[in-house]
Specification:
The chain has 15 helices and 14 strands. With about 525 residues, it is of the alpha+beta class. Strands 1, 4, 5, 9, 12, 13 and 14 form a seven-stranded mixed sheet that branches. It is elongated and about 135 Å long.
């Protein structure tokens, strides 16, 4: 007979590499594993495929390594808006305490810490203030509160604010919020505190923002008694323009406005966006200012934490550091620690905080979203000679007083546009996949479907080579059992069943047959047959 051919030819299994190479979309694989013997052409194709595969893997490794470095890029853009939220404006008089509101009890408690006074100098200092000395038998109070001192003796906005207008409409002290800073009692316009609606502006330029006329009250300035580190030699107002989410650090970030001048401040809003780790180092989790965690509310309603900001993180870090070192906090710091006494201010709080700022102990990451305001300042002298007479009559002051104490501050947006500074991922996952796909198609001519074909082939190999091995083992065991049974039957060929038409001869009993096996099962089978 002839060997079977055509459809009757034995087909190769799907796990055969030649079958896979003949149908795979991977370029060059069919030339390497095609039918025939090993030739120079096949060797050249195999070399080309190996070089292409090595180049492809090298390029993919470089792209994956570059993605793992998590690079970012910064984009700068300028956008327009129909209206902008007006920033918060914090004002502080450079003089922290009014001389007319200091008492002998204040000097007893706060004189050494705030003014550098010795107890023997209290009488002379009160005389310099124009105040009577302490009466005979004076007894200081058993306790003293620094916050109450600054609230009572600090400059009052009702006395300093001569005129206030926002976008041409009158405003007053009710539009300001009291806030404590390291400079004492200060006032913030448009703070948004306690759910107050934020003010907006729809125009840029002077006259479309906040314009205030202030009296710095030089006659209330404390005399310079000693040259200490905190002794102010200047006169005027310290100003900081910031967002509502950011607490002011006016002693470090504020600019000055001097009496006798009108200061124009042109602002431009900047919105900065940073990336979280691993692409950047921004954070949105607020730092708890308390060194020791307070017990949670038994009702399960924790107090809301303020939005994260860089200055808020620094204040919380400073509060925790002072609470650990001194057991108290300064009055402008957040947290639940007790406010430092004047003696603690002098002996621990001020030196510790100054040393902390010099060492830059607090490491605070940038917030993921922050709003800042770029500023341009310009000034003109006020008042003119004609205006001095008018202002003197209006406020019942002398012209010299107006020239030495009155200033005007005009804060506005330059235009209704803002800058965006945004960090973006320099290499996205989609770009990584696109580069891998491009390198794959360029060097080995493969695609995602080719990978699926390879996986399908590996499944076929596993099924035929691994699972098939166990199937063949089981089939061999079954075949061996069947052969043993047939051999046992063949050994008892005399007891073949009768297939004639006549009556079947009686089958002798199984037990007396000496040729039968001792196995009951074999005896039963032979009897049945």
């Amino acid at each position: 007979m002839k060997a079977p051919s055509g459809p009757e030819e034995v087909r190769r299994p799907a796990s055969d590499i030649r079958v896979f190479a003949s149908s795979c979309t991977l370029h060059g694989l069919g030339h390497v594993f095609g039918p025939g013997d090993l030739t120079l052409r096949r060797g050249m194709w195999a070399t080309a495929m190996l070089l292409s595969l090595a180049t492809f893997l090298y390029q993919v490794a470089g792209r994956v390594r570059y993605y793992g470095e998590f690079h970012h890029e910064t984009t700068l853009d300028e956008r327009e808006s129909r209206q902008l939220v007006f920033p918060a404006v914090t004002l502080c008089n450079i003089n922290p305490l009014r001389r007319s509101h200091l008492t002998p009890n204040d000097l007893h408690w706060a004189g050494p810490a705030l003014l550098g006074l010795d107890p023997a100098e209290h009488v002379a200092f009160l005389r310099a203030l124009g105040r009577p000395p302490a009466p005979p038998g004076f007894m200081p109070s058993p306790t003293f509160d620094m916050a109450q001192l600054y609230t009572r003796a600090g400059h009052s906005l009702e006395d300093m604010l001569l005129d206030c207008r926002y976008r041409g409409q009158p405003c007053g002290p009710e539009n300001f919020t009291v806030i404590f800073t390291r400079m004492g009692q200060c006032y913030t316009f448009n703070s948004g505190a306690q759910g107050t609606e934020l003010l907006t502006t729809t125009k840029g330029g002077a006259g479309n923002g906040l314009e205030v006329m202030l009296d710095v009250q030089q006659e209330e300035y404390l005399p310079v008694w000693k040259d200490t580190e905190d002794t102010p030699f200047e006169v005027g107002i310290r100003v900081q323009i910031h967002s509502q989410e950011e607490p002011p650090i006016i002693d470090q970030l504020g600019f000055g406005a001097a009496p006798g001048y009108q200061t124009f401040v042109s602002c431009q809003q900047q919105q900065l966006s940073y990336l979280p780790p691993p692409w950047g180092d921004c954070s949105s989790k607020s730092l708890n200012p308390d060194f020791e965690q307070e017990p949670s509310d038994p009702l399960g309603s924790p107090s809301p934490s303020p939005p994260y900001s860089l200055t808020g993180c620094r204040l919380a870090c400073e509060a925790r550091y002072l609470a650990r070192k001194c057991g108290c906090r300064m009055m402008h710091m957040p947290g639940g620690a007790p406010v430092c006494s004047p003696q603690q201010y002098k002996d621990c709080a001020n030196p510790t905080l100054d040393a902390m700022l010099r060492k830059d102990t607090c490491t605070c990451p940038n917030p993921c979203a922050v709003t800042r305001y770029a500023k341009e300042l310009s000034m003109v002298r006020i008042p003119s000679r004609s205006a001095a007479r008018y202002l003197a009559r209006k406020f019942n002051r002398s012209e010299a007083y107006i020239a030495e104490n009155v200033l005007v501050l005009d804060i506005f947006f330059e235009a209704l546009n803002y800058e965006t500074v945004e960090q973006k991922k320099a290499y996205e996952v989609s770009e990584l996949l696109g580069d891998i796909g491009g390198q794959m198609g360029l060097f080995i001519g493969a695609s995602l479907l080719t990978i699926l074909e390879i996986l399908d082939y590996l499944c076929e190999v596993f099924r035929d080579r691994v699972l098939g091995y166990f199937w063949r083992q089981r089939r061999s065991q079954r075949h061996s059992s069947t052969n043993l049974l047939q051999e046992g039957l063949a050994g008892h060929g005399t007891h073949v069943p009768h297939f004639g038409l006549g009556p079947r001869p009686p089958t002798p009993p199984c037990a007396p047959a000496k040729t039968l096996s001792a196995s009951h099962r074999t005896c039963y089978l032979v009897t049945r047959l």
